């Protein structure tokens, strides 16, 4: 994941750089090959619901860090300004 945030910042406007990256072995699709996003949206960044690796662009960090319960707690407390 090192270098990904720099690459995204170079090629995307700041508002389009994702705060979370979820790594899945395979994307779920419908019968017409559309991506199933409903389940992803419902799970969000809830660590109890997500089984895949989840990375977070922590404010002030050089790049993406693995999302942990400490990050979730800081988000819930409003410690991060996103």
What keyword list fits this structure?
82 residues; three-stranded antiparallel sheet; 3 strands; alpha+beta; single chain
Descriptive overview:
The protein has a three-stranded antiparallel sheet, with no helix packed on it. The model has no long low-confidence stretch (mean pLDDT 88). It starts with a helix and ends in a 5-residue tail after the last helix. β2 (54-57) and β3 (64-66) form a beta hairpin. The protein is 28% helix and 12% strand. It is α+β, with helices and mostly antiparallel strands and 82 residues long. The radius of gyration is 14 Å and the shape is globular. The protein contains three helices and three strands. The protein has helices at residues 4-11, 38-43, 69-77; strands at residues 20-22, 54-57, 64-66.
Give a topology summary:
Layout: H1 4-11, E1 20-22, H2 38-43, E2 54-57, E3 64-66, H3 69-77
Antiparallel strand pairs: 1-2, 2-3
